[in-house]
Amino acid sequence: MAFRTLDNADVQSKRVLVRVDLNVPVADGQVSDVTRIERILPTIQELHKKGAKTILLAHFGRPKGEAVAEFSLKVVVSALHKALGLKVAFAEDCIGEKAAAAVSAMQDGDVLLLENTRFHKGEEKNDPEFAKALAANGDIYVNDAFSAAHRAHASTEGLAHLLPGFAGRAMQGELEALEKGLGAPVRPVVAIVGGAKVSTKLDLLSNLIEKVDALVIGGGMANTFLAALGHDVGKSLCEHDLADTARAIMAKAETTKCAIILPVDAVVAWHFAADAPHQTYGVDAIPSDGMMLDVGAQSVERIASVIDDASTLIWNGPLGAFELHPFDASTVAIARHVAERTRLGKLVSVGGGGDTVAALNHAKVADDFTYISTAGGAFLEWMEGKPLPGVDALKA
Ligand code: ADP
Ligand code: MG
């Protein structure tokens, strides 16, 4: 996967339009989590040092094409200024006279944030006229927002066709990590897929069985597979109507030589609550009034040994109801095992997904994985093998 990076861009004195992810959480008029801001600092600092005029473009919330005060990006200016240690100017529109005036007032090295791109309907429609109006303020386009790259919007895709386009450092880091995960991975590759439902992850499963050597299925999803194989899963979360689909996936895995690893035992409880009374059973002996809320200790051992044989691991979806202690046990144990193998240099490990990131943070392994993607939807579409328009537009 070849794409242009800042190494290929001559930015000195140029007006550089940088698409960033500033869709940060806000509480009481203050940015309450600066993770996304921290990710884009390297690109902005590099552009500043190279004497570019850095013009930031971003969306914030869902104002649906109208200028809505509640969704103004003005709220992030002070957090951005603090994190960067540089003055950040703000323009009340991302196109038109206000944007043009703010841009023409810039000196080399300055940083300017433009108002929410989604205040204009043309953004989400990828309207060519709107993209042109954005392009009027730049000489070069840099996309540093992988998390928005699954959407073909004017600021994430359209602009790349109007100006020379480059991946920013955060985008580059994400793409390089993902390339190690599925693009050109060191084999054997194992994937862990868990979470609640098969129905939300059908595309994911069919893509993975073509690409990985072993697929570990856990969480509520495993119940549907176990039921399809004739096991009684009691009152467990299970999509019985997807039994045929589950059998088709297992049959396809045989033809693609992808080993499917299902739980052999499970932690069963009688209600869905933290610290609910629980007991471990083999998957042949699940009580008909019980619910499997986590995979059992024997399954954990099996999964760990599959990981020991692998060189690359990708992970989406917790192995159990990790929000409820002690049904987080297998997810935490496997997360720590993956972290250990990664620290030893034996494994490249990539994880992502909303609840998966929360589960890996809960297991305190966030710094030990090779890469954890916080990109949500874009990460999942990448795992599903779908093209990402914002990335394709940067290909060299
Ligand atoms: P992600 O957001 O990372 O893609 P999902 O949303 O697919 O992950 O799955 C996370 C959810 O799956 C969690 O809320 C977790 O409680 C639930 N889950 C996992 N295992 C089970 C289970 N055995 N029974 C019920 N829910 C489960
Ligand atoms: Mg989720």
Helices and strands in order, then pairings?
Layout: E1 15-19, E2 26-27, E3 30-31, H1 35-49, E4 53-57, H2 77-84, E5 88-91, H3 96-104, E6 111-114, H4 121-125, H5 128-135, E7 140-143, E8 165-167, H6 169-183, E9 189-193, H7 202-211, E10 214-217, H8 219-228, H9 243-255, E11 259-261, E12 265-269, E13 278-282, E14 291-295, H10 297-308, E15 312-316, H11 329-343, E16 348-352, H12 354-362, E17 371-373, H13 377-383, H14 389-392
Parallel strand pairs: 1-4, 1-7, 4-6, 5-6, 7-8, 9-10, 9-15, 10-11, 15-16, 16-17
Antiparallel strand pairs: 2-3, 12-13, 12-14
This protein binds adenosine-5'-diphosphate (ADP) and magnesium ion.
The site of adenosine-5'-diphosphate has 18 residues, from helix 8, strand 14 and helix 12.
What does this structure look like?
The structure is a single chain. The protein has 396 residues and is of the alpha/beta class. The protein folds into two domains: 6-171, Rossmann fold, CATH 3.40.50; 185-383, Rossmann fold (3-Layer(aba) Sandwich). 35% of the residues lie in helices and 17% in strands. The chain is built from 14 helices and 17 strands. The strands form four sheets. Strands 5-6-4-1-7-8 form a six-stranded parallel sheet, with helices on both faces. A six-stranded parallel sheet has the order 11-10-9-15-16-17, sandwiched between helices. A three-stranded antiparallel sheet has the order 13-12-14. Helix 12 (354-362) links the parallel strand 16 (348-352) and strand 17. Helix 10 (297-308) packs parallel to helix 11. The longest helix has 15 residues, at 35-49. Bound molecules: adenosine-5'-diphosphate (ADP) and magnesium ion. Adenosine-5'-diphosphate binds at residues 194-196, 219-220, 237, 292-293, 316-318, 320-321, 323, 353-356.
